[in-house]
């Protein structure tokens, strides 16, 4: 509907615009050495796979580099994705490091735990991917298995860094993850050597054949799911779009923004 030149749009049209806009999804980032052009410096970055998955599911991705001061940025987004990456420092869950555990990325650990708890406090839709699932568990009071082969799980979840293995994940009947995929068994891609020992207050709803937790949910949240595999991988896009679309559907209705527009 046209409005007279120089006049402000009606409050009704503002509400409609807010509802119709693509959900804005904050995506955490790595901070690692990187090189492009003439530069070789530490950089806040992530695989473009995540950005593509958000866009193809109908959202707009914005990068959230580590920030240890607060989680106030969550007041400006409609949803959150915590991505994969290096092992979480075991001090965050009261453990001593295993010899195979990565050198901790301390700022990233603190920042992502802040973001996870901030999303919980705001009931902001949240998807955790690989490390992101593990961050969710730690933020909810849980602990991790620091090395799966040493704990007796073999190489089913990763044969070597930078590669993927394939295995099925069984979903709990009636779980949100089963409803999203429309099945109780999903073939997945895996690349991790750590896993969930104790999910804290989260509820496990998916397991690999060896009993390792592969999915956790917060049943009292609008949307809070963590998965241990890599749904962002472009080779899996058709299979995994339902998960990203479920996040967008939850993020499309943001009570915080609706209250600002009412």
Helical element count? Answer: 7
**Number of spatially distinct domains:** 1
CATH superfamily: Class I glutamine amidotransferase (GATase) domain
CATH-level-2 architecture = 3-Layer(aba) Sandwich
For the record, the CATH class is Alpha Beta
Task: Pick out the low-confidence regions.
Answer: 1-6, 13-18
CATH fold label: Rossmann fold
Percentage of residues in helical conformation: 25-40%
How would a textbook summarize the main sheet? Answer: 9 strands, mixed
Strand order across the biggest sheet? 4-1-5-6-13-12-11-8-9
Return the average pLDDT rounded to an integer. Answer: 91
Could you tell me the radius of gyration in angstroms? 19 Å
Written account of the structure:
The protein is built from seven helices and 13 strands. With 262 residues, it is α/β, with parallel strands linked by helices. It has one domain: Class I glutamine amidotransferase (GATase) domain (Rossmann fold). A nine-stranded mixed beta sheet has the order 4-1-5-6-13-12-11-8-9, with helices on both faces. The relative contact order is 0.16. The N terminus is likely disordered.
Map the helices and strands.
Elements: H1 11-20, E1 24-28, E2 30-36, E3 39-45, H2 48-56, E4 60-64, E5 79-82, H3 106-122, E6 126-129, H4 131-139, E7 143-145, E8 165-171, H5 176-181, E9 185-190, E10 195-198, E11 203-208, E12 213-217, E13 224-227, H6 237-252, H7 255-261
Parallel strand pairs: 1-4, 1-5, 5-6, 6-13
Antiparallel strand pairs: 2-3, 7-10, 8-9, 8-11, 11-12, 12-13
């Amino acid at each position: 509907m046209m409005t007279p030149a120089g006049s402000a749009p009606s409050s009704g049209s503002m509400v409609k615009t807010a509802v119709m806009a693509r959900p804005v999804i904050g995506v955490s980032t790595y901070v690692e050495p990187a090189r492009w052009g003439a530069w070789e410096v530490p950089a806040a970055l992530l695989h473009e796979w995540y950005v593509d998955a958000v866009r193809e599911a109908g959202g707009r991705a914005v990068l959230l580099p580590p920030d240890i001061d607060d989680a106030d940025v969550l007041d400006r987004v409609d949803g959150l994705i915590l991505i994969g990456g290096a092992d979480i420092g075991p001090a965050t869950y009261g453990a001593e490091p295993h010899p195979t555990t990565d050198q901790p990325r301390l700022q990233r650990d603190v920042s992502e735990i802040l973001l996870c708890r901030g999303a919980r406090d705001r009931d902001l839709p949240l998807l955790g991917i690989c490390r992101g699932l593990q961050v969710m568990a730690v933020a909810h009071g849980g602990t991790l298995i620091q090395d799966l082969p040493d704990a007796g799980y073999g190489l089913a979840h990763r044969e070597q860094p930078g590669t993927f293995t394939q295995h099925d994940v069984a979903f709990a009947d009636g779980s949100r993850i089963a409803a999203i995929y429309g099945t109780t068994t999903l073939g997945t891609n895996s690349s991790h050597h750590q896993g969930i020992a104790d999910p804290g207050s989260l509820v496990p709803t998916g397991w690999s054949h060896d009993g390792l937790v592969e999915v956790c949910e917060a049943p009292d949240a609008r949307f809070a799911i963590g998965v241990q595999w890599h749904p962002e991988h472009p080779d899996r896009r058709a299979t995994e779009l339902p998960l990203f679309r479920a996040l967008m559907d939850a993020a499309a209705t943001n009570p915080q923004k609706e209250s600002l527009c009412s």
